[in-house]
Amino acid sequence: MALSCLTRALRSLTLSQPALLSSQVNKYSFPFASTVNLQPSELCISFFVCKAPVAQLKLGTLVPSTVSQCRGFLTTASLKQNRTYWKQMDKYTTRPMGMKKTGGRDHTGKIRTRGIGGGHKQRYRWVDFQRLRYEPNKEGQPFEEKVVQVRYDPCRSADIALIAGGNRKRWIIATEKMQAGDIIKTSGVIGRMAVSANEGDAYPLGALPVGTLVNNLEIQPGKGSQFIRAAGTTGVLLRKVNGTAIVQLPSKQQVQVLETCMVTVGRVSNIDHNKRIIGKAGRNRWLGIRPSSGLWKRKGGWAGRKIKPLPQMKSYINLPLISAN
Amino acid sequence: MIPEATHYLKATVSLFSPNVFLNASKLSAQGAPSSLQTRRNLRVSHCLAANVSHPKKQREKVEIPGLKMVTYGDRMHYIPGLAKPVYSPWKMSFKDPRLYRSPPAQEMALYKDKPCYVFNQRTSILEGVRQAAWLTKTHLSPGLLPHLVSLAAKPENQLPNQDERVQNAIKHARFWDTTEPRPRKEKYSKTLLLNLLHLCASLQPSHPAVGRRILAENYSLAATWKRGEDLFQIRGRNGLLHCSMDPLPRICGEQEVLETSDRVLESFCPVSPTIDLQQVSVYKEEMNYTGFRGEYPYPHAHTLYFLETSDPNCQLRPEQFRAKMIMFTFGNALARAHKLYGTQPQSLLERPITVQAVGTNGRIFQFLVFQLNTTDLSGDDGIKNQAWLDEDVELYDFAKVRPFIKRKEVKVPAGLAGYKPETFSKFLTLYLHGAA
């Protein structure tokens, strides 16, 4: 069986091909085989290593040529096991999905982020961050939705709320005083007068009065909220400048975004999240946090309190460039 | 930098870029990608690199009418520069049922633009009983009517040794019916229901009308009706049906039926009443089917018995379970009404159709009596149907295989505890209704 695999593999190797470079490139027909392991299992065929043939160009620079081809093939069972198939759903669903933990590993299989691994199994609840999502036949009109349930989400620090409106249900990030049975409003209209918003409602930034506490900020209209989503966080709408609005994020950084970006009013739920006491190492392990190295290491320039001026205001409005041409 | 050096540096860069490899692969006759480096190259083919493969952006194919594309189809092999030939999809000359692929929804014969909302036995509607009442245009009253309950108080409507026999039935279902330590919930709830039905049927010598009934299981129900602008259907198989040769008498008098037109249905804005219902575009209009064909000797639905399913995907909460009871009872009544009086909506039926339902999970019972007064369901006003719902009636408190001991004290002893005789009398009343 291994012999048949080997012959199959050899048959698939292509012969010489004309290169893209000049005709002075030499042609090499056969790759060099360094090791061939004939093992009983089909999956353990080792890789054919090609020694790169070297071609001489005009100026004498040694450049490997693209000539000899070798189709690569797998040496391990399957690298597909770290594909994120569970994330590839097209249709929105409120049903919680089984999740695959990565352990801090990236697509190559190596650890990219240390200290992540283990922890309780979690099911992912697909949160709809684009609050202003109209139903198929009801574009353009402000709509209301009813909060059915507010519950804990293992995948984030904030609580999530199941809201139902019209013919659909979806999960959103719950705000501080949201309870089952509340009616929350979503509107995309910017009027001349600022709206007196209730907590949990979603409006564009241009429709809110200056000084409102906001969360779930969109930086590009229609993209979905990317900022201020963690437990207990809130941003402040500082000022509105012709067509744009400036919001202060929880890190005191200020951002300038278009006034049509949607935002939710209020503080994110679970405000005592930062006051919790872990209590023991085991609880951290339940959360999927692996221990850091126990060795004493001299701290570098990163440690200690830093007092710096605030970074400049970041602007996310794509103004047309004034080119000198 | 020296221009020639930059030129050759660029050439070097282009050599090592992945595009070169891909170009080489496109040009090669066999399409094999190349790999030059001595180490394993993760950019060689997409099955080696376990990236999440992004869908390739296809170039838009522009169709210019009148312009004939020169394809390499005649030449029988790929030629760079010529267009890819487009062939019509091949179809087999004969029909093979194993290889049949159903057409997309838009091409099916029964496709309609207007969607229909279907309620099936796995549907779990958000608002529960209120939504079911709106969908069926029903006025819901809590508790059973007193004249029904008083029916059970009469001595001729009671079993000899009733309490003892019912307790034996419960013990059989909960303790004795298995070789394992304790029977599973689906098993004991079904056994209990069948035991209680058997006890009720033992009254046949004194109530001969009981013999004119039959139990039917797993029959398919279909009923269609219009509510406002939307079309609704009930489809599905529900559990056990007691059907009889004689219809049930009406529960409510004419006066109360006319009074229901003053009541207002509960609305639950902003949630739409069609939430959680299955939306289908391929359906048969005017689909009304009682579950039995032709002249069936037991055409009148008497009582439906609902059990909780063991399917983990559709676990119904008590509220949703009661909603399912209401919907299926209504479906049976409506299918019968359509058969008797035709499918044209009628605002007042001269003989309202009464159907009963009992739902249980093995310990807690829900009793429902439904009276269909009207088939004109399109508007929210007018005469409404009526339903009387008795929720969460316990038959017994505990049936423990092993005693519940806390801190060396027996809190709940083993065996049957807290038996309530009224529940069985209600069950018996609903059974004998129409026969006594």
General description of the model:
The complex is a heterodimer of chains A (325) and B (436). The longest helix of chain A is centred in the first third of the chain and has 11 residues, at 2-12. Chain A is mainly beta and 325 residues long. The relative contact order of chain A is 0.11. In chain A, the strands form four sheets. In chain A, strands 9-14-10-11-12-13-15 form a seven-stranded mixed beta sheet, with no helix packed on it. Chain A has two helices and 15 strands. In chain B, strand 7 (353-360) and strand 8 (364-372) form a beta hairpin. In chain B, the strands form three sheets. In chain B, strands 1, 2, 3, 4, 5, 6, 7, 8 and 9 form a nine-stranded mixed beta sheet that branches. In chain B, strands 10-13 form a two-stranded antiparallel sheet. In chain B, strands 11-12 form a two-stranded antiparallel ribbon. Residues 8-38 of chain B have low confidence and may be disordered. Chain B has nine helices and 13 strands. Chain B is an alpha+beta fold and 436 residues long.
